[in-house]
Backbone:
């Protein structure tokens, strides 16, 4: 459904016919959408027979079915306003601090870190899945031969001119399924734990809906909230794959360091890369359910 022609989302309890203990707000990553959470949601529901866990699964603006009049962004913070507005339209303030748990994957982790630290009076509990670090996700300059230098890109124009970004933008415009099929398999699912080709091609449809890829890449380049994530009250649960090439395990350790070790619990999966909700949805669901029920 849509709210005021804003964020698209699905709600497992939209009819309000079941009481629930917790509301999980799922926030996806870059070049993905809410659809990439679906196998994970199924695994949660298999184990949550009493429907104690409400799941709100949204598309960030400019992704999937959340195509607004203006999808451009400059900062990660620009993605949080719509999410907060959605949440306060669905829950009373006292319910938010008691029941709502933000759950961010990759870029979604950065978005949830921003929201939880900006509005710590609302959002206490947080789940980070293969999350970007609170210090950002950086691209580096290239020399004339395309070799990476040790200097970070400093401007949005440098991001736009970067060979990797230019190539991805071109392939997005061409709806090049074959190209992104190989990107997913080699870079995002490098553990070898692939969904079926049919599932993967279905998921790739939403890659081509994204309308702000360069903006998001620039926002992550600038992102640095190391000075404020200690405001997050916690507890915070982190789930990370050791084989992750996009957001390496060091990002999880960085987040723990700046949030505060005493607030955080980390699970590291030895044989998982950047897409736990697709690679090991069962294991991820079990750990998240255990985390939720530890909050009682």
Residues:
């Amino acid at each position: 459904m849509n709210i005021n022609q804003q964020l698209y989302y699905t709600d497992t309890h939209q009819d309000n016919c079941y009481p629930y203990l917790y509301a999980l707000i799922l926030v996806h990553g870059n070049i993905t959408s809410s659809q990439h959470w679906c196998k994970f949601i199924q695994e949660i529901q298999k184990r949550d027979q009493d429907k104690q866990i409400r799941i709100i699964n949204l598309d960030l603006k400019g992704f999937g079915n959340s195509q607004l009049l203006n999808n451009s962004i400059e900062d990660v913070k620009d993605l949080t306003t719509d999410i907060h507005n959605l949440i306060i339209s669905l829950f009373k303030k006292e319910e938010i601090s008691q029941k709502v748990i933000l759950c961010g994957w990759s870029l979604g982790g950065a978005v949830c870190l921003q929201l939880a630290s900006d509005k710590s009076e609302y959002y206490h509990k947080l789940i980070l899945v293969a999350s970007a670090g609170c210090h950002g996700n950086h691209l580096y300059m290239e020399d004339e031969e395309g070799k990476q230098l040790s200097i970070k890109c400093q401007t949005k124009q440098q991001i736009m001119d970067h060979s990797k970004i230019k190539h991805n933008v071109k392939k997005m415009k061409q709806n090049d399924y074959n190209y992104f099929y190989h990107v997913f398999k080699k870079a995002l699912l490098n553990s070898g734990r692939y969904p079926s080709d049919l599932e993967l091609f279905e998921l790739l449809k939403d890659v081509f809906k994204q309308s702000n890829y360069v903006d998001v890449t620039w926002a992550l380049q600038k992102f640095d909230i190391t000075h404020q994530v200690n405001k997050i009250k916690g507890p915070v649960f982190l789930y990370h794959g050791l084989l992750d090439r996009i957001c390496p395990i060091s990002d999880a350790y960085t987040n723990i360091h700046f949030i505060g070790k005493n607030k955080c619990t980390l699970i590291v999966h030895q044989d998982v890369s950047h897409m736990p909700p697709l690679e090991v949805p069962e294991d991820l669901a079990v750990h998240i359910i255990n985390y939720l029920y530890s909050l009682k």
Observations:
- Strands lie at 9-11, 22-27, 53-58, 100-105, 125-129, 140-142, 148-152, 236-241, 264-269.
- The mean pLDDT is 94.
- The longest helix spans residues 77-90.
- The chain is about 40% helix and 15% strand.
